[in-house]
Amino acid sequence: MRTDASLKPVFAAALGVGLFSLLDAMMKVIATTYPLAQSSGMRYAAGAMAAIVYYMLTVGRAPTAAEVLRSLPRAACILLAGTCFFFALARLPLIDAIALSFLSPLFLGLFSWALLGEKLRLSTVAAMLMGLAGVFVIAQGHRLDENKAFEMLGFVAAIATAGFYALSMVLTRKQGAKDPVPTLVMLPVTIGALVTAGPMIMVWQPVETWHWPVLALVGVTGTAAHLCISWAYANSRVGRLGLLEYTGLVWGALFGYLLFRESPSAFTIAGAVIIVAACLPAFRKETA
Fold this sequence. Notes:
single chain, 288 residues
């Protein structure tokens, strides 16, 4: 497996997390308006169209049967993570759903150790626990807020998102040793679009006119985010990049305020500071 010791994978992963946070904000608009099956189907259909265009421009051939088979487990994880997250978005504020999904670096460290044989460094474990402490600070603020009802199903869905997402990133690292990045980007979202097409049609509701450009932007943003993330994880250790997932909290707070007027509390700000501090070790250039 390729390993780039420079900061390029780190910055690519950070950009990918930011783009995914923007996608999450746009999908909150869709997920709160349409049934889960329809919002999931539209997201993957939009992503597939953009990803196929990118794939044909860069690769220019049909994927092989072996590439498709290698992509199936990863596509299943991405589809399950996305469906769980859209479910959570419909029931939780954007910042809540993103904060709970930050359990993924803990899963990432464990999965990369168990499935890839990566060394679980003490500094990485400490940073993950520090980031998790930031998440708990945020959760404590929500627990003390009497104006927020506890959404158990949304809570469980957000945690499930973290597990499935982490497993998909480990599989990205593993598959990246054999397949090019355009294949890593295109096949999972296209498989997801095919799987969700039937359920989407069965519950279809008319789409508001202004939601069509939102969906188009979802497709482009999702493809760009997957491109950044797939390249980063194909070229660097999973444990190192997993810490960058925590930066999504900052983006979630920003987009939540700008688009939904969800003001971050003092607990959210304190948690964000802890989380960003936990990410700093990832920005050190690795030695051979």
